């Protein structure tokens, strides 16, 4: 399904439709959003390089990692760095997002540390101005694919970071502009959902045709955050989690899918949901020396037993021993019953309970008042 | 070194290998158990051999004056005044710091000072291991007139130093002052930023004479490093040092 998402991004936009957009959403309980983002980025880059995708280039807005981090990442996945200028542009919102360094350099308190301008990277000194940012993205894209019909993809590595400097409405305007731009093939962005109000998350989800939600394997039951008592839980969530995907079709049909992922030294790995829920319940029973559970055979035997007061549905009136019958009557009945018992013995599928009264000299209870004859 | 001091070293230095540059360490504590000792431990460790020859600490102190740290570190066997004279310990006294305007002007200046110190050290002989420490973020936030956004901007700029120059950044913050806050709260954003989180908490079972609290080290994976790792220790703060040990290994 991560595969499916990558394929949808690869296939790009139809004429006269918005470009497909993906929101990747995580939370601090399972903060693996950047891993998923990098995975999607690497897949899309591979597709662009092998000319399998609709888009011919990629514009990356980097605000939480430096451009060199992404270059290293892509090189690590086997992309040739000599090819970067042909298909990749990075808008560097990481190095100096608010222009502090420029300000300090101008007044001479620090020396020039800013990276030199290159073909691939463009520095952004004011991330608060989203209109300018939006223009820069389009310009960088056009540098890659020209003015014609070619399309490019846009990756935003942190919508959260952008929302710290701008309002949701201006970010929504930027994303909406990108999606409806006829040279944009697809767009995707990362969001830390617990840093935003629900309405912000919802607004971004509305704007995306796909949602990848990253959740922990197990949620802490304790509401209070950061309680180290559930260390085993932390341990369990520390390198794997659940991946829920929601894909919206044009006609409004929604497809939901789930996968699990695991972080490995080589990268993130997706697997189908394991169906070992049953195993979990079994392993929850503590290991003891005696047997707490029934075997399958024992379970069948137990099901056959007819309980003494259970309605047996053999057509006879239901007789419930009410303690009024005398011992003799019971004897007569039991001789009737013995014939029946022979039959029941032939039918091994039926169980019965045989009851012996403890002592014969004790008369059964009656509802007569035992104190009747007392003369008070 | 305190008995078992290696435990905490192993736990948080694991992410150091690998080419990800520096890292960000967040130390969280609460009212009942202060985590100042972790910061002292880091200073001591950075300034003692074998690291000392190429180490530099830039310490932004919002909480205490220099004499406070000097006294504590002296008991631990590390003379901060000498280190300061040797330019291995740059102390930025921020006790009376206040941001003048609403645009984070004061913080820009503070960042400028830090970057200047980094540059000077590189020019003068190339310290390879530069640590920036901030004690503590809650007071930085007070100085920024409660604007957590400005604090985050400042931390972002410090973060750029970790990736560009390979500095490491260690900051202390108090977890419980954010516990009932509406989101987004500062501590959560700092947890996203940090690669290693050290939480210092009291024992769940209450006070004990020979265990003063527990310490959880969460080592998030940085993309080139090892897998995420979590470890839990107990500690006991003594007069001159701190003992770290595995839970249950003390009677």
Structural account:
The complex is a heterodimer of chains A (376) and B (251). Chain A has 376 residues and is of the alpha/beta class. Chain A has helices spanning 2-11, 33-49, 67-76, 84-87, 100-106, 130-145, 159-165, 168-180, 198-206, 231-237, 277-284, 296-304, 327-346, and strands spanning 21-26, 57-62, 88-92, 121-123, 152-156, 184-192, 210-216, 240-248, 254-264, 267-272. Chain A has a ten-stranded mixed beta sheet with strand order 4-3-2-5-6-1-7-8-9-10, sandwiched between helices. In chain A, a hairpin with a 5-residue loop joins strand 8 and strand 9. In chain A, helix 6 (130-145) runs parallel beside helix 8. Chain B is an alpha/beta fold and 251 residues long. Chain B has one domain (5-245): P-loop containing nucleotide triphosphate hydrolases (Rossmann fold, 3-Layer(aba) Sandwich), CATH 3.40.50.300. Chain B has a nine-stranded mixed beta sheet, sandwiched between helices. In chain B, helix 5 (105-125) runs parallel beside helix 7. Residues 14-21 of chain B have low confidence and may be disordered. Chain A binds chain B through residues 28, 31, 34-35, 38, 65-66, 68-69, 72-73, 94-98, 100-101, 103-104, 109-111, 113, 164, 192, 194-197, 224-229, 231, 234-235, 238-239, 263-265, and chain B through 19, 28, 104, 108, 111-113, 115-116, 119, 149, 152-153, 156-157, 160, 163-164, 175, 179, 183-184, 188-189, 191-192, 199, 201, 204, 214, 216, 218, 220-221, 223, 226-230, 232. Chain A: Belongs to the ELP5 family. Chain A: One of its GO terms (cellular component) is elongator holoenzyme complex.
């Amino acid at each position: 399904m991560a595969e499916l998402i990558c394929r949808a991004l690869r296939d790009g936009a139809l004429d006269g439709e918005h470009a497909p957009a993906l929101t990747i959403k995580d939370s601090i309980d399972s903060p693996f959003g950047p891993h998923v983002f990098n995975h999607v980025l690497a897949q899309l880059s591979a597709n662009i390089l092998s000319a399998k995708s609709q888009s011919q280039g990629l514009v990356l807005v980097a605000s939480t990692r430096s451009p060199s981090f992404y270059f290293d990442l892509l090189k690590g996945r086997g992309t040739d760095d000599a090819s970067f200028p042909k298909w990749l542009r990075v808008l560097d919102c990481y190095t100096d997002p608010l222009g502090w360094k420029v300000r300090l350099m101008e007044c001479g308190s620090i020396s020039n540390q800013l990276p030199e301008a290159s073909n691939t990277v463009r520095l952004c000194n004011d991330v608060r101005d989203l209109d300018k940012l939006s223009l820069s993205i389009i310009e960088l894209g056009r540098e890659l694919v020209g003015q014609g019909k070619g399309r490019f993809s846009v990756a935003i590595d942190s919508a959260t970071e952008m929302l710290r400097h701008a309002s949701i409405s201006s970010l929504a305007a930027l994303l909406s502009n990108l999606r409806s731009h006829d040279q944009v093939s697809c767009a995707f962005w990362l969001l830390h959902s617990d840093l935003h109000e629900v309405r912000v998350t919802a607004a971004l989800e509305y704007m995306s045709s796909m949602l990848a939600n990253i959740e922990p394997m197990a949620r802490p039951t304790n509401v209070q955050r950061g309680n180290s008592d559930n260390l085993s839980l932390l341990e369990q969530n520390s390198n794997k989690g659940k991946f829920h995907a929601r894909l919206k079709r044009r006609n409004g049909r929604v497809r939901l899918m789930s996968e699990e992922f695991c972080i490995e030294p080589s990268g993130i790995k997706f697997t189908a949901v394991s169906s070992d829920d049953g195993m979990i319940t079994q392993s929850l029973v503590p290991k003891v020396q005696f047997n707490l559970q029934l075997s399958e055979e024992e379970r069948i035997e137990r099901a056959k037993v007819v309980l003494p007061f259970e309605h047996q549905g053999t057509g006879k009136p239901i007789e419930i021993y009410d303690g009024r019958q005398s011992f003799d009557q019971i004897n007569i009945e039991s001789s009737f019953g013995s014939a029946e018992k022979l039959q029941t013995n032939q039918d091994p599928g039926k169980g019965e309970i045989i009851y012996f009264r403890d002592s014969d000299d004790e008369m059964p209870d009656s509802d007569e008042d035992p104190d009747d004859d007392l003369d008070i | 070194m305190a008995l078992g001091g290696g435990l905490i070293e192993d736990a948080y230095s694991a992410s150091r290998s690998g080419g990800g540059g520096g890292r960000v360490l967040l130390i969280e504590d609460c009212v009942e158990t202060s985590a100042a000792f972790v910061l002292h431990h880091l200073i001591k460790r950075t300034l003692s051999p074998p690291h000392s020859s190429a180490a530099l600490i830039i310490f932004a102190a919002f909480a205490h004056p220099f004499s406070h740290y000097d006294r504590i570190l002296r008991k631990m066997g590390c003379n901060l005044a000498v280190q300061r004279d040797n330019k291995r310990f740059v102390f930025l006294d921020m006790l009376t710091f206040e941001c003048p305007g609403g645009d984070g002007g004061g913080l820009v200046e503070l960042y400028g000072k830090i970057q200047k110190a980094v540059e000077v050290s590189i020019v003068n002989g190339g310290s390879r291991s530069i640590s920036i420490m901030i004690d503590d973020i809650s007071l930085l936030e007070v100085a920024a007139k409660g604007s957590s956004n400005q604090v985050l901007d400042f931390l972002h700029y410090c973060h750029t130093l970790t990736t560009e120059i390979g500095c490491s950044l260690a900051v202390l913050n108090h977890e419980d002052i954010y516990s009932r806050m509406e989101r987004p709260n500062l501590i959560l954003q700092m947890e996203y930023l940090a690669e290693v989180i050290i939480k210092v908490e009291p024992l769940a079972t209450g006070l004990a004479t020979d265990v003063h609290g527990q310490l959880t080290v969460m080592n998030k994976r940085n993309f080139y490093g090892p897998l995420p790792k979590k470890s839990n220790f107990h500690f006991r703060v003594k007069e001159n040092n701190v003992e770290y040990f595995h839970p249950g290994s003390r009677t």
